[in-house]
Amino acid sequence: MSTLAPVTPLSAPDALASSDLGLPTEVPLDERDGRYLRAAIALADRGRSRGNRPFGAVLVSPEDEVLGEAWCNTSETGDCTGHAETGLVREVSPRYSREQLAQATLYSSGEPCVMCAGAIFWSNVRRVVYGIDAQRLRAFRGERLDQRDAELSCRDVFAASPYPIECIGPALVEEASQSHRGAWKL
Ligand SMILES: [Zn+2]
């Protein structure tokens, strides 16, 4: 028997209104961060079109060079660790120095889970911008146990780091939510 507490049953549209539900407040982004977060959201849609859960991530240098991009490929590969951010770290960490990665920003269409937050920590990436937050995502996931995430915020993982990891989000919530509409029914 599961010891997990029941999930508060929010409907997806309700989850988008943060006012009286105690949901995280959306953070405004500048043009540059908005542009790359939208690129991550586009990757989420691309991954979804291939039958995966809709998550995407992109890593960008301070000189606006895209160092890597990935979408969640768990359905395509059968690899439960195939989340977008972890896949992205796996792709870029052999190719760039830890010093280069420390200067980069990782954009993720959704708030990183505990595994991805750990991978981001090990990569030495120190700035993260994400779209839809984990709480709103739970409204899309529904109450199915096999779709439940670990309810530990990426910020708790980053806070355990010996150096600061800046974490910005939720942002572009409405745009980031679009990728998830109808994607968790099966
Ligand atoms: Zn993850």
Automatic annotation (TrEMBL):
Residues 1-22 are annotated as: Disordered. CDD domains: nucleoside_deaminase. Keywords: Metal-binding, Zinc. The keyword Zinc applies. Residues 31-145 form the CMP/dCMP-type deaminase domain. Coiled coil: none annotated. InterPro entries: APOBEC/CMP_deaminase_Zn-bd, CMP_dCMP_dom, Cytidine_deaminase-like. This is Nucleoside deaminase. It comes from Curvibacter microcysteis.
